[in-house]
Amino acid sequence: MKDQDGDTSGKPGSLLDPEAHILVVEDDGEMRTLIAKFLRQNGFRVTGARDGREMWDTLAGSPVDLVLLDVMLPGQSGLDLCRALRGKSGVPIIMVTARGEETDRVLGLELGADDYIPKPFGRAELLARVRALLRRSRGEAGQPVAGTAGERLVFAGWTLDTRRRELAAPDGTVIDLSGGEYDMLLAFCEHPQRVLSREQLLDLARNRMAFNGTERAVDVMVSRLRRKLEPTEDGPPIIKTIRGAGYMLVPAVKRAT
C-alpha cells in the first residue's frame, strides 16, 4: 500500500502545466515526501512509488505525464526500470542520480531518459527541469516549433510531423521518440545534407533539450536515433558520421503541410 505521498490530490494544475501528473519513484520515504509536497505546492498532481512494482501499478491505473525516477532502488534499479519503461512508453523520464558523474548521466540517456538531475538538487532547478520537459513533450503547449509550423518533414520515406511531434516509418508505423530524440532529429531535418559538428548540434537543440547537453550526450542521442532509423546494417545510412567533423543527415528533406 502506498504511503501518504501516493495520494494524487493537490492544488489545481499550474498555469503552465495544467493538471500534469508526475510519478515520483524514490525509495527514501523522506525524500519522496519532500519532492511530492514541493511539486504539489507548484500545482502538479503527484503520485509516489517506493519501487518498480508500485511504479508499474500506478502507470497501469492512470495516465502519467512525467516520471521522476531515482537510480538507486530496491529490486530493479532505476536504470533497469528506465529501459523497460522506454520500451513500452514515450512518457518523459528524468533520472535522479546520487552523483553527477558523466558515466551515470550517459548511461541513463542511452537507456532512454530525457534528462537527469544529480543529488543534492535545489528546488528551483527541479521545478525548471520538470516544466521544461513537460513543455517540450507537449509541443510548447500545443504549438509547433517555429520555422516548421504545422509542417511534415519527409526524408527517405520517413515523416516527422512537427505538429504532432511524431515520427512515422515508411510503412506508416508510428515510432516512439523521447523528447531528446525528437529535438535532435528536428535539428538534423532543419539542416539536411550538411555536416553539423557536435557543438553545432548542441546549439541547434539547446533551447529544446532539457538535459545539460555535452558532446557525449550528442553521440548518445545520435546512436539512439540510428537504432530507430536504421534497424538493419544492410540499409543505406540515414545519419552519417563524418570523421573528425560531426554528423550529417544524408537524405534530402521535403516539407509538406
Automatic annotation (TrEMBL):
Keyword Nucleotide-binding: no
Annotated GO CC locations: cytosol; protein-DNA complex
Domain OmpR/PhoB-type positions: 150-251
Domain Response regulatory: 21-134
Lineage: superkingdom: Bacteria
Alphabetical UniProt keywords: Cytoplasm, DNA-binding, Phosphoprotein, Transcription, Transcription regulation, Two-component regulatory system
The keyword Cytoplasm is assigned to this record: yes
UniProt subcellular location: Cytoplasm
A Pfam cross-reference name: Trans_reg_C
4-aspartylphosphate modifications at: D70
Protein name: Regulatory protein VirG
Organism name: Neoroseomonas marina
